[in-house]
Amino acid sequence: MTQQLSTGVVHLTERTPVVTGPEMLASLVPPPQFDDATFESYRADPAYPSQEEGKDKLIRFAGRGEPAKKVGFFRRAPKEEPMKPGVYLDGGFGVGKTHLLASIYHALPARRKYFGSFIEYTALVGALGYKNTVDLLRGADLLCIDEFELDDPGDTMVMTRLLGELVASGTKLAATSNTPPNALGEGRFAAQDFLREIHAMSESFQTLRIDGVDYRQRAIDGSAVVLGAADYQQAIARAAASGAASDDDFSEVIRHLAQVHPSRYIRLIDGLSLVGLREVRVLTDQSEALRFVAFVDRVYDAQLPIAATGVALDAVFADEMLAGGYRKKYLRAISRLNALTHSLPDAA
């Protein structure tokens, strides 16, 4: 159950949430900011034709395509290639892939459909066991998977095995993944990795490339907002007067995240209107950094402003990490952290 919204200051480090399997299944819906996402509200950038082309194909995938028009007695309308049972959206951050994924979810007329991040599905398997998860999801009309991850071979193979069973029973699949905008060729490499992992399922998926510029960076200067001590306390007090605001030392939060399963991070921020992090420092431990990325994803899904002091949050990951195998995750998190610090009321 979601905690009741209250006012005042709370501490994330004092929260030890518990989430049951059925609650996790019930939570597999689009994040709040995509409650009203539609194909019509998706604003394709004319500078990147793949956005409009991808949207048109996804409209067909969701069963919303227009019937073929008649062109005369002696000419036939061009035959459109049938859509496969799965689509994979490959591209950079902030180009609207999650919006499109949520649009599929809302547009597809289905009795049973689910929408979640890769980590939410793997957490469901962890909580319920593989067989129970298959039994619960079997018969679903649609499964949407945001941010499909390839960096954990065990989780990836469990998920691809799960998806294989669901596709065989008639479930449609839609997935997204991320590619840094400046990573030449990396997007298609990630797509091929995904298809290779699902082996026999590869023929069931159509890969759609969605190019573009990170929309979160279009209206900001690219640097996360850092507050002084006085401004930070003022931001916490202002938020706590009308809602619940968290106020924690950054290092203590990082330690606490190690004690909470990532599937429960969403409950850490239940009822909050703002997240406060004091004395942010550079993360040099990979495990700490990846847990923080998972936490940032949940904060972003909830669209909670972040107030922070110390090191700017766009510099929270050490340079060697940004050059490593998890580069895509860290750059996505930086993009989201920038946006969340700029969403702070009266952010400079």
Shape: globular
Mean pLDDT: 84
Largest sheet: 5 strands, parallel
Extract low-pLDDT stretches: 67-71, 180-187
Distinct helical segment count:
13
Terminal Cα span? 36 Å
Subunit organisation of the chains: single chain
Total strand count, please? 9
Helix content range: 25-40%
Blueprint (SSEs and pairs):
Layout: E1 8-10, H1 21-26, H2 49-61, E2 86-91, H3 97-107, E3 113-117, H4 118-128, H5 130-137, E4 142-146, H6 153-168, E5 172-178, H7 186-197, E6 205-210, H8 229-242, E7 244-249, H9 250-257, H10 265-268, E8 272-280, H11 286-301, E9 306-310, H12 319-322, H13 327-342
Parallel strand pairs: 1-7, 2-5, 2-6, 3-4, 4-5, 7-8, 8-9
Helix pairs in contact: 4-5, 11-13
Which labels suit this protein?
alpha/beta, four-stranded parallel sheet, 348 residues, five-stranded parallel sheet, 13 helices, globular
